[in-house]
Write a structure and sequence with these properties.
Shape of chain A: globular
Strand content of chain B: under 5%
Largest sheet of chain A: 7 strands, mixed
CATH architecture of the largest domain in chain A: 3-Layer(aba) Sandwich
Number of helices of chain A: 9
Distance between the termini of chain A: 16 Å
Structural class of chain B: mainly alpha
Oligomer: heterodimer
Order of helices and strands of chain B: HHHHHHHHHHHHHHHHHHHHHH
Number of strands of chain B: 0
CATH topology of the largest domain in chain A: Rossmann fold
Helix content of chain B: over 70%
Largest sheet of chain B: none
Shape of chain B: globular
Helix content of chain A: 10-25%
Order of helices and strands of chain A: EEEHEEEHHHHEHEHEEHHEEEEEEEEEEE
Radius of gyration of chain A: 24 Å
Number of strands of chain A: 21
Strand order of the largest sheet of chain A: 6-7-8-3-9-10-21
CATH class of the largest domain in chain A: Alpha Beta
Radius of gyration of chain B: 24 Å
């Protein structure tokens, strides 16, 4: 069942434009809105929350419209959502306990303490103000506050960005566990692949105010449908593929078969798609070594091909500036630049 | 503000601005270009047409520059020494830099005139510079607070002490210049002190005096040009003031104090540590202590020919003030309190909108202070001195509204600056609470802005207690203490005046001290 249905949403503000954008988020799913800065992730999340009003389109929760209707836009506190802000947005003059009891006035002291305990804040911290909490504790409090009203949907705006690396996994586990426990639909905004994968099972990739791909995280990682998704999620290198002779596409790595459909096309090379080959072998291209890092199973070598950086594995160390010959390990992967809302 | 209540509140605030700033100024403009029958731009041709107008404008500009130089020397020196160095008691002295603002400039002038002959141009510039130095001191302190200690240390490591200090001065220059422009604007629009010095034998006149003189003469005017002349005469001054304040505002906006950062390292004064106390001594001594001492001497009978100072006389002066001017003191305090309440109510939604939605409100908000107070007062007279509004016109409520309109820029600029420093997410987070808009405002928004609101309340209540120019024009102003004090110039009665002035100062100090004690915070947001 669809919990959140974004329909032809448009937000126009000065030079910035989001949409028209449609996205269906299933009930009980955990979805990450991922994309580079300025892609419109946070704006989309804020429209879902009711903090921003779209110029057009609608958002529906369980089939009920939030913006279109006789009563106008539904207020954020009547949408049944919890929101975790990037830097917590904790109120400096309230204690941890007061935060929970303010957003949920019916909450007893005991229930509020239990709510804090769920996120790992003990009774001793209940009387502390945000200034007396660490970054991780502050973000736990922000999470407890968001859950205190008993939401159906939990929205998180880069929730791990302000937390130390060693606390990120712990917090991500906590968020996932609580979402599962309460049967929440979870939507998280991030521009970091690791954060998205730690919190979500589904990814919606945004670029230039549009969803260019949406589907299960594993599928998007292993078989991206667009060059941008491959580059953003997997660190792939994309080479321009221009029409050549015999209906093929010409790339810096040689001619590749042209797929069905409209271009423009890119040859997408994922890390470790390339392998070093012998100098006299055909279908190899020259590359110049930029950097060589030792790893557990050998070396990771960064090299330049046609002005783009690629990565390949090597059993032997390579000298910086050395010329190497590289070939594709598997069949070439040719993708469109972006897929106009590609769904799986 | 996005709720229905918020929009209604903003609408009420806007209506207030229209009624007490827009309408008076609109009426004045109409009076200039409309002669009762047709459009007549003739009076505009009179702008600076007369030789003495041009001379007066030049005198005003020279006085403004002289006084501003004095304000910068005193204010910047005070801020630098108390904030940046290991001056003895520097931390305690720093917040006192705002104190000279508590005293009406006319009172300071009267105090100086009591001790030394005070009539020349230099004396007037020094007096006005001293009275307006707090603008430079407060904004220079703000600039020093905004500088990151690491940035100064980087300059120190790279180029040495002298270069680092020059870098620091450049870093705070926009704030200092903003303070200087505020001081300049207030000096050239000041009417009370130059007029008082005229009584003491001054032979030159300022442009603001000229405007007031034209206004008092206009009762004898019959044609459109004569009636419009004081308004037309004010236009060049308005233009200069608006420009100075607009630039000051832009400069002030450059330094934003972002969260907590390492402050500037304290600079050791070495053997100059104790001698350096002389500058704060002069600043506070001349700007605050000396006028208080003179007022105390007046109350003790110093102006009686041959009479000796006595405590009995001192007590008698206070008794006399109590019996004869208790009503004036009550009116003044009520007007001060009313102005503060009205201004906070009107200023908060405007400041919030300026900070979160429409930054141009900041620029528009300077209008009431760019227009000389006399002119705003004349405009209010033109709008409300009619049968329909006569009860209101004659009542202290108009004085409250006029003061609130006049001090609106201080309120809006201070509060909008405070709102900008509070991340919008803190307000947005409250919108998910299962609470109504009123409780959300009371429990979340209000505490976030409380320090700035307290600072504004202190500043505005003090300014309202000392405002003279509007009190001169509006009928209810006759019942204020500051008006009675200015009458001493003409009619005598220094003993009771001294007692009244001391009571006024006490009242002006009670509000900030009370706020400081109750809140336990430094009143910093005033900048």
């Amino acid at each position: 069942m669809t919990a959140i249905d974004v329909r032809e949403l448009v937000v126009a503000r000065g030079d910035f434009r989001l949409g028209p954008l449609s996205l269906a988020i299933a009930s009980g799913s955990r979805t990450a809105l991922i994309g580079p800065s300025g892609a419109g992730k946070t704006t989309l999340l804020r429209c879902i929350a009711g903090l921003d009003t779209p110029s057009g389109g609608d958002v529906a929760f369980d089939g009920a419209s939030l913006f279109v209707g006789a009563q106008g836009a539904i207020a954020p506190n009547r949408r049944g959502i919890g929101f975790v802000f990037q830097r917590g947005a904790l109120w400096p003059h309230m204690t941890a306990l007061e935060h929970l009891r303010f957003v949920a006035p019916d909450l007893s002291r005991e229930a509020a303490l239990a709510g804090l305990a769920r996120v790992g804040l003990d009774a001793a911290m209940a009387g502390r103000r945000p200034a007396a909490l660490s970054g991780g504790e502050g973000q736990r409090l922000a999470l407890a506050r968001a859950l205190a009203t008993g939401p159906r949907v939990l929205l998180l705006d880069e929730p791990l960005a302000s937390v130390d690396q060693d606390l990120r996994d712990e917090l991500a586990q906590l968020v996932r566990g609580l979402a599962e426990e309460d049967g929440l639909t979870l939507v998280v905004v991030t521009h970091e692949r690791e954060e998205a994968l730690a919190l979500a099972d589904e990814l919606a990739v945004l670029r230039g105010g549009r969803v260019i791909e949406h589907g299960p995280a594993l599928e998007l990682l292993q078989a991206p449908r667009t060059a941008h998704t491959a580059a953003f999620l997997s660190g792939a290198t994309c080479f321009a593929a221009v029409p050549g002779a015999n209906g093929s596409l010409q790339t810096p790595l040689g001619a590749v078969p042209r797929p069905v459909g409209e271009g423009p096309w890119s040859l997408v090379v994922l890390p470790d798609d390339l392998v070093a080959c012998e100098a006299d072998q055909e279908a190899c291209v020259s590359a110049r070594v930029l950097r060589c890092e030792p790893g557990l199973g050998g070396f990771r070598v960064y090299a330049y091909i046609a002005g783009r950086s690629v990565v390949f594995g090597s059993s032997a160390a390579r000298a910086v500036g050395e010329d190497v010959r590289l070939a594709l390990r598997a069949a070439p992967r040719v993708l469109g630049l972006d897929g106009e809302g590609a769904q799986r | 503000m996005s709720t229905r209540v918020g929009r209604l509140w903003l609408a009420v605030a806007t209506a207030f601005v229209v009624a007490f700033v827009g309408l008076p100024l609109g009426f004045m403009l109409r009076e200039v270009v409309w002669d009762g029958e047709a459009l007549n731009l003739g009076p505009l041709g009179e702008i600076l047409a007369e030789e003495h107008d041009r001379t007066r404008l030049l005198v005003s500009l020279a006085l403004g520059l002289g006084a501003t130089a004095c304000a910068v020397a005193l204010g910047l020196g005070y801020a630098f020494l108390t904030f940046r160095t290991d001056l003895p008691a520097g931390r305690a002295l720093a917040p006192l830099g705002v104190l000279p603002l508590v005293l009406p400039p006319i009172l300071v002038a009267m105090a100086f005139a009591d001790l030394v002959p005070t009539q020349g141009f230099a004396a007037c510039a020094l007096l006005l510079g001293l009275c307006n130095a707090p603008f430079v001191a407060v904004l220079a302190s703000r600039g020093l607070r905004a500088v990151r200690g690491e940035a100064y240390e980087a300059a120190l490591l790279a180029r040495g002490r002298g270069a680092a200090e020059r870098w620091l001065l450049r870093a705070i220059a926009p704030e200092v210049l903003a303070g200087a422009l505020f001081a300049f604007a207030l000096v050239i629009s000041e009417h009370g002190v130059p007029e008082f010095l005229t009584v003491k034998g001054k032979t030159w006149h300022t442009y603001a005096e000229g405007i007031f003189a034209k206004w008092t003469r206009r009762a004898t005017g019959v044609d459109h040009e004569a009636l419009a002349s004081p308004i037309v005469a004010a236009l060049p001054l308005v233009a200069i003031l608006a420009l100075a304040l607009f630039v000051a505002l832009r400069l002030r906006a450059r330094a934003t104090i972002e969260g907590d950062h390492r402050p500037l390292p304290v600079r050791a004064l070495g053997r100059w540590r104790w001698p350096a106390l002389a500058l704060p001594g002069i600043y506070l001594g001349a700007g605050v202590l000396l006028p208080i001492v003179v007022m105390a001497r007046w109350a003790a009978g110093s102006t009686d020919a041959g009479g000796a100072l006595s405590l009995e006389r001192f007590a008698a002066s206070f008794r006399l003030a109590g019996s004869e001017a208790a009503g004036d003191l009550g009116t003044t305090l009520a007007v001060g309190a009313g102005t503060t309440v009205v201004l906070l109510f009107v200023g908060l939604p405007l400041a919030w909108t300026a900070a979160r939605r429409w930054a141009r409100i900041d620029a528009l908000a300077i209008l009431p202070i760019a227009v000389p107070a006399i002119l705003l007062g004349i405009g209010l007279v033109r709008v409300y001195n009619r049968d329909l509004f006569f009860a209101f016109y004659d009542h202290g409520a108009l004085l409250v509204a006029a003061y609130a309109a006049r001090f609106l820029p201080f309120c809006v600029l201070t509060l909008s600056s405070a709102v900008r420093r509070v991340p919008a997410e803190l307000e947005e987070a409250a919108s998910f609470a299962q609470r109504g808009p009123f409780v959300r405002s009371l429990r979340v928004h209000l505490p976030l802005y409380a320090p700035a609101l307290v600072s504004v309340a202190c500043l505005v209540s003090v300014l309202a207690l000392r405002e003279l120019d509007l009190a001169v024009v509006l009928p209810a102003g006759n019942g204020t203490v500051v008006r009675r004090l200015s009458n001493i110039v003409h009619f005598g009665g220094e003993d009771m005046g001294g007692a009244l002035a001391l009571l006024l100062l006490l009242a002006a100090l009670v509000v900030p001290l009370f706020a400081r004690i109750v809140s336990g915070r430094k009143l910093r947001s005033v900048s």
